[in-house]
Amino acid sequence: MDLELRYKNVLITGGSKGIGLACARAFLAEGARVAIVSRTQAHLDDARRALGEVFVMAVDLCDASAATLMVERVEAEFGAIDILVNSAGAAQMSAVDDLSPSAWHAAMAAKYFTAIHVIDPMIKRMGERGTGAIINIIGTGGKFPTPSHLPGGAANAALMLVTAGLANTYAAKGVSVVGLSPGATNTERVALGVKAQAQRLGLSEEQALGSMKRDLPLGRFAEPEEIADLVVFAASERGRYLTGANIVVNGAATPSVV
């Protein structure tokens, strides 16, 4: 299937590792041009060595002004962005008894506002041009709360609402907005989840890992490449009618019809 992505300009936040890095590979394989941003220059350097010819820029997306300047610079130096993939940001996991108001604020800053700070300037530019696609990689915690991830889940839920609302608002302007929420995926993030689960249940990390896998219908975590394949399709013209959808991708771990 030709997804018609050749020569499209793609900006991926959090593109230096994990799902973001897998998305970069998938778009490059489709013939797209890719720019990736991350907070850490060393991670970007590693990603560029692994990927080849990509545009990279280090930026802290928690800073709204820095995010706006990043969008301006990327479009000036790399070209007008056709597709934005938000894969940056992750809220810290912790036991409920360890939470404080500052933890809830930190989760919103780390997950919700890192996306909003890029979406806001980017979707306005896309709307003016009459074309564009935004894919938000969110997380199942926004739909299925877990005790070790409540602040992050709240941030995810807020981003799901924004995805649906902006999709409805910008559809007539030619911009699609889709949310994909992966379940447990084989990235560094899983290790943090295993540690939090072990602490909550009083298990060793090895025991917690085994328990998590046994609870999954497929008996394994998703691979980043499996999520990236869906991102690429959703961002293409073939996936245009998905706009406004918030899709859970967790291998039937939480069966639901809602």
From TrEMBL:
Keywords, ordered alphabetically: Oxidoreductase
One example GO MF annotation: oxidoreductase activity
Domain Ketoreductase per the UniProt entry, residue ranges: 8-183
The protein's Enzyme Commission number: 1.1.1.392
SMART domains per the UniProt record, alphabetical: PKS_KR (SM00822)
UniProt similarity note: Belongs to the short-chain dehydrogenases/reductases (SDR) family.
Protein's recorded name: 3-alpha-hydroxycholanate dehydrogenase (NADP(+))
Name of the gene: baiA_3
